[in-house]
Structures are given as C-alpha cells and as structure tokens.
Amino acid sequence: MNNDQPINSPHARDAATPEQTAGAKATQESHQSPELPENALIIIPVRNVVLFPGLLVPITIGHKSTVAGAQEAARSNRQVGVLLQRDPETAAPGAADLYQIGTTASILRYVTTPDGAHHIVCQGEQRFRVIEFLQGYPFQVARIERLDDAKETSTEIEARMVQLQEQTAEILGFMPDAPAELAATAQSITSASMLTDWVSGLMDLTPVEKQDLLETLGLQARMDKVLAFLTHRLEVLRLSHDISQQTKDRFEEKQREFLLREQLKTIQKQLGEPEGASEQITQLEAAIAKAKMPEEIEAYARKELKRLDRTPEAAGEYSTLLTYLEWLVELPWSATTEERIDIAEARRILDEDHYGLQKVKQRILEYLAVHKLNPRGKSPILCFVGPPGVGKTSLGQSIAKATGRKFSRVSLGGVHDEAEIRGHRRTYVGALPGNIIQNIRKAGVKNCVMMLDEVDKLSIGVQGDPSAALLEVLDPEQNATFRDNYLTVPFDLSGVMFICTANMLDTIPGPLRDRMEMINLPGYTEDEKVQIARRYLIGRQLTANGLSPGQCEVTDQALHAIIGSYTREAGVRNLEREIGHLFRHTAMRVAEGQAGSLRIDADDLHAILGPIKFESELAMRTSLPGVATGLAWTPVGGDILFIEASRTAGHGKLILTGQLGDVMKESAQAALTLLKARASELKLDPDLFEHSDIHIHVPAGAIPKDGPSAGVAMYIALASQVTNRPVHSERAMTGEISLRGLVLPVGGIKEKVLAALRAGITTVLLPARNRKDLEDIPDDARARLEFIWLDTVDDAMRAALEPATP
User: Fold this and answer.
1) Which residues lie across from 637 on neighbouring strands?
2) Which end of the chain is more exposed for a tag (fewer CB within 10 A), N or C?
3) Residues 6+ apart with CB under 8 A from 746
4) Nearest Cα to Cα of residue 99 among 86, 118, 113
5) CA–CA dist 455, 505 (Å, integer)
6) Cα–chain-centroid distance for residue 298?
7) Per-residue DSSP letter, 748
8) Nearest residue to 792 (alpha-carbon basis) of 674, 694, 630
9) Helices 180-188 and 155-173, packing angle to 10 deg
10) Phi, psi values for residue 148, rounded to 5°
11) 421 three-state secondary structure
C-alpha cells in the first residue's frame, strides 16, 4: 500500500526481531534528528481512519515519506499529527489532499512485520488545525494550532451525557459479542468531551462522518450529532431484533401447524374419511403463500381458507368459497414486468407502426420520458380521441411494445352495468369480478398497459352508472386501493398504465373527462393514406389473402382513385377493406389459373369494385344563388355541409329544415337578423323581408346537425339569395357570427380543413382568430389549399360571392 490503512492488532507483531532492533539503533546513531519550528508536527496522512483524542488506534503506513516521518517521531519521542485524506485513492497526498483538522498523537509502539509492512500504534491526544505545511523535510511537516477542548458544564451537557451513556449501554446490549468491559467503561467516564470522542470512535460511521464529528468543536453540538447517530442506529437494531423475533415465532407456528396437520391426516385415515379435501386445502395454502399478497389480505385469505376447511363439500357455500380463493391466489399481487424505457427505441417503434401523427407521437414520447425519470410519479391518464380507423388502439399496443409491458384491452362499448367495472357481490349466483380485475388476471402482472376502449360509449342503466365506477379506476389518488365488489379487498392499480380511446368527448361525463388528458387524432390527408396503404395495409392484406408481393401490384393512381372515389373517411379502415377486395379478386384469378400476377391501375377499379361511390357535387350544387358550402365536424371526422336558402312570397317567416339542433337554429336566426340590419348597406328593398318567407335547408335531413360553426355559411347563403350573386363553387367556410357582424372562432379546424381537401375544395374561409390552429394542419394540406382569414361577415362576402352581374 502507498498510504496508511487501519490494521487489526492481532496481525502485527508485538516486538521487532534482534536484527531489526540493531538496525534501528545504527540508524539512530548515524542520523541527527532534524530541528522543527515551534508548534510544528510531523504529519501522518491516513485513509479511512479518524483518530479521536483519548483513543488508541493501530495504523499501517507504507509511503516512503510517511515511514520516514513515523521513524523520526519514534526516535525523537515526538508527537505526530494524524490527518485524514480526502480521497482514499490518492497515492501521495499533498496539502490540498488532506483535511485541515486532525488529532495529535503519541506513537506508543512501532512494529515492522516480516513481510516488510510498517505499523504504528497511536494514542490520540488533542485536536489541532493546520496553519501551513513546511517545505525542506524528508517527510510532511506542518505548523499547527492546538485546539483546546472547551470545558463546558451545564445541565444541558449533563443531560446529554446521561443520554449518551444510556444509549451506548442499550446498543451494546443488542450485541451479544460485545465485551462487558465496554459498558462499564462508558459508565466510568466522567468527562463529557472524552465520552463523546470515545463513543464517536466506536460507532460504525463513514470516515467522512467521523471527520465531521472531529471538526465539530462545540461540545454541545458534537454531542447532539453523536446522539442523532446513536438514535438512528438504535432504531435499526430494535427493528432488526423485532423482525428476528417475529421470524422465529412464525417458524415455530409453522412447525406447530405441520404437526397438527399430520395428526389430522392420521385421524382421518383411522376414521376412513377421504383426504382429497385436505389435499385441496394444502394446495390452496401453498398457493396463498406463493401469491405474496399484502399482509392484511393474506390474513383475510387464510381466514376464508379456514372457513372452507370447516365447510362440508356438499354445502352450496363450498364451491363459492373455493372459486373466491382461486381468484385471490391467481391475481398478480406482486408479479410485475421489468420495465425498459428506451426513448430512441420507443420513437423507432412508433415510427415503424404509425405514419404521420407527429404531435401525438411526440406527446407519447414525453409521457414515457417523464415516466422513466419518475417511475413512482402519478402519470396522467391519456385518452386518444379521434374518428374510427385512425390508429387509436394500435397506438396503445405500440406503447406496450415500447415499454416491454404486457397489453390488455377492455372494450367498454355498450356497457351499461356498474358491475361490469366493479364486479358482482359474492351473494349472487355466478358472481365474478369486474372487467378490470379479470383483465389484470389475464395479463398476469400488476403493471400492464390496459386500454379502455370506447369510453364514450358507456351508458347508464338500471344497474348503475359504469362511468362513475371508472372514476376510482382512473384517479391516481384512489386506484391504489381499488375495491372490487367480488374481491371485497383492495387491489393496487397504481402500477397499471391506463390508456383510453373515444370517438367524441360530448358523451363522456365531465368528472371522468377531468381525469384524462385528451390527445386528438384527426383524420389523414390523401397523401398520408397512400403512404399508410403502401407501408402497412397492402402487406397485411397480401398475407391475409395468401398472395406474395409479386402476384399483385397496385399503382399509386389506383390508390388515389380508391381514396377519392370509393372511400370518404377520416381513417383508413374502409381503405383497407377495398384493398382487401382487390386482393381477393386477384387471389381468385390466380387460384383459377387465369393469371400468374396482376397489375391494378385506376382504370381497372370499376370492373373490380363497381361504380364509384362518391363524386363531387360542388359545381352542380353551388351554381345557383342561395347555396353555400360549410364545413362541419362529426364524430367520424370532418365533412362538408351544404346550406341552401330560398325565398318565396309570404309574410316574413323563417323556415328551418334538415333536422337542425337548437344551437344551429339560433345561428340561422342570428344570420337573418344580421342580414336585415345590413339591408341598406347591401342596397336591398326595405320591404323585401316583410313580404317574403325565408327557407333554410341543410340536406341529408336524416342526420341530426348542431353547433354554431355554420353561422358564416348561413349568412353567405342568405346574402347570395337576396343579392342574386352565386357563391364560388370551390370555396368552403366555417365560423360563428355575432349580431355585430364579427366572425368568431370555432373548433375542429384540422378535421374541417382535411374534409375540404377530400371534397376538392381549393379555398377555405376561416375565422381570423383561428389562425393559431394553422400549424396543426399537415404541410401538404397547407400547400394545396388557400386560406382566407375572416374578421367580419364583410370579409366573407367579398371572398365567397361572385361579382354582381351588371
């Protein structure tokens, strides 16, 4: 060793050999002891050892300069200064590598062992502080300031001294191997300072902690620190002793139960009773022990097991108790999946499984990053909201794959019974736990990813409100003690990563919605759908229909034609069905031997898929005055909406048709009132509205419609009718209006813009206050559309209506 190490005194020799003694004498005679300045000491650097005043400590020294210093101090009978190194790994410590406060010591014995190691036994004397290190010596020398120990005496010091003696005696009582003389020594010390240093040296503290005690010069503060260490150590020893005693008692109880069960088996055998029930009880008991339930739940399970043991097999309650106990032991009370969260790998998985959805994937990665840095934190419940077929469920599966957790899906569509969530009470025949507990059991771990699908489709029935039961499931403050009606004992759901999906938010109750963070998944653009078809759908349908990639090729023109003419949806579910139709047709041709492979282009679709299902009606339906194209949001994505206005002779009535909701009716009233107020500006006949009936109709009358965002389109339709100016056929609009003529912001801008793009619109009129939503729209959609921002209805009229004919 290059530096000093503590040693065990049995390994050091008590005396040097005659040859060593003779050599030491010769050395002493041939060297003159160097003179040291006043208040200077030879410094002995040590590692992992802190010497306190009054303590006797053996030290191993190895560095050349340290050995020289120790030999010089032993020859000249000088005191040395023992200083702790800051870093034990430093081979040759300098002034900056040592603490500044240490202990002066007398070398009582210097021993050299046969293997060449040097040992000294030091007696601590007094604290000192280094003033400066001196140069020009073959060993380390420093000028020091001796620190006198304050002779504090007060009732506070006496009280702390009594505490030190009592706690030291109690700790020694927990150590059966501790010499009895130590307790007697603690009681015999009368100096508070000496007792504090003596106890500090005996405690199993780190060198840094001991150095802190050495540097604490105030006696009362030093005693407080030592008492704090002793109190902590005493608590640990008490708990360890209690645990040891409990383990011993439990082991004795197990032995007693084993003997009693063996006696019971013998008695049953003598009476000729079957042992099957007893074996079943034994198996259940072993399963309870293996399940590692919480202590109170395990006690309850064993209580139910004793009831089962006392119940005859022929009794009806026997099977109920048996099923209940089987549920208890099969639940993963402590089983978990080792979680691995690699953000780069999670990003790769999300990009591999889903095209587009950049903001959604970014939020998922943020969610995973926070969970990685704070695994015990209360993460928000994510709820993916969007139209069907946009990838909500598959996103949940990707999250499970990225975290290495098991995936479980609970379908809540059409659930109207609270017991489907909380379970049935055991008093009912055929009772079972709810879907949450059932899926936990199926997953086999308590930290799975659980997707609650279609939470917006829950309904209230006579059996209760299932959405209210979900409040406890999805609340991080409560789900750690979720209580299923069947189990009747709490189960910890806090480790489950819940993810919800919904098509719309309106039907989700407010308290339940408040527990979730909504992440919107709008529809895809046409280009995104082509990419999704190329990356995922075509390969999946080729495999499903037994085809190889070389047997059927679908061109990009064919895909664009399918998206534009055969499907009109926000997602890609119908697109996958149509692609599957193409491959089934190809599979039939290949199976009949009519063709080895097919290449399907846009011209071939009519023969395979039939006539087109969707065509543009814009030019036809907006060629006359009084027809405006609006944009609407629906649960299945955005859509275009035609507003038709007609004027007939009458008495000023307003007729509204098309199954409009109350809000939409109010928008029509506001549009008409605003138009009447601006009649003079539009140069209209003042008697026009008094002798005319206005009829506003929104086609697709079988579909209910509501919302304020059709206000601009209604106003433009009315203005077009009364001014006899047609609306531009390639322009669509959305926005709420006020009676002052302002255009107010609306929601669902991204969905509406994508719907306009699908319908062939080239220009979209949007409220100016929705300009912030432009960044949510995909880049290719922004490149293909022109946006006109509206502050007032005058802006809408200038942009939407064609010029008046002379």
Assistant:
1) 634
2) C
3) 707, 708, 709, 734, 735, 736, 767, 770
4) 86
5) 9
6) 29
7) -
8) 674
9) 180
10) -75, 135
11) helix
Do strands 654-657 and 80-84 pair parallel, antiparallel, or not at all (unpaired)?
unpaired
454 vs 140: CA distance, rounded Å = 78
φ, ψ for residue 784, nearest 5 deg? -95, -5
pLDDT mean for each 10 residues of the chain (806 residues): 38 36 40 74 89 88 86 87 88 86 90 86 90 88 84 80 83 74 78 85 86 86 87 84 76 73 68 59 84 86 84 78 87 84 86 81 85 77 84 85 86 84 82 88 87 86 80 82 86 86 83 85 78 86 85 86 81 86 86 81 84 65 78 73 88 86 88 88 81 86 74 90 86 90 88 82 90 83 89 89 74
CA distance 407 to 392: 14
Report whether 432 contacts 483 (CB < 8 A): no
Q: Which helix (H) or strand (E) holds 598?
A: strand 598-600
The pairing of strands 598-600 and 118-134 is: unpaired
What is the DSSP pairing of strand 381-385 with strand 497-502?
parallel
Phi, then psi, of 640 in degrees rounded to 5: -90, 155
| Distance of alpha carbon 35 from alpha carbon 169, whole angstroms | 47
Amino acid of residue 490: P
pTM above 0.90, yes or no: no
DSSP 313-336: TTSHHHHHHHHHHHHHHHS-SS--
Is the sign of the CA dihedral 367, 371, 373, 377 positive or negative? positive
Q: Which residues are catalytic?
A: 709, 752
- In angstroms, the Cα distances linking 50 to 35, 102, 259, 662, 719 are 28, 8, 55, 84, 94
Closest CA to 525 of 788, 763, 762, 756: 756
Beta bridge partners of 620: none
DSSP state, 92? S
DSSP codes of every residue in 264-292? HHHHHHHHT--SHHHHHHHHHHHHHHHHT
Cα–Cα distance between 749 and 763 in angstroms, integer? 14
Find the helix or strand (DSSP H, E) in which 128 lies. strand 118-134
Q: What does the alpha-carbon distance between residue 111 and residue 252 come to, in Å, rounded to a whole number? A: 52
Fill in the DSSP letter of residue 571. S
Q: How far, in Å, CA of 437 to CA of 482, rounded?
A: 10
User: What three-state secondary structure class fits 46?
Assistant: strand
The residue length of the chain stands at 806
Burial 718-746 (b: 16+ CB within 10 A, else e): bbbbbbebbbbbbbbbbbbbeeebbbbbb
Q: Which amino acid is at 624?
A: L
Q: Which two tokens stand for residue 250?
A: 């439990």
Please list, in sequence order, all residues whose beta carbon lies within 8 angstroms of the beta carbon of residue 34, skipping any fewer than 6 positions away: 72, 137
- Return the closest-CA partner of residue 498 out of 378, 341, 602: 378
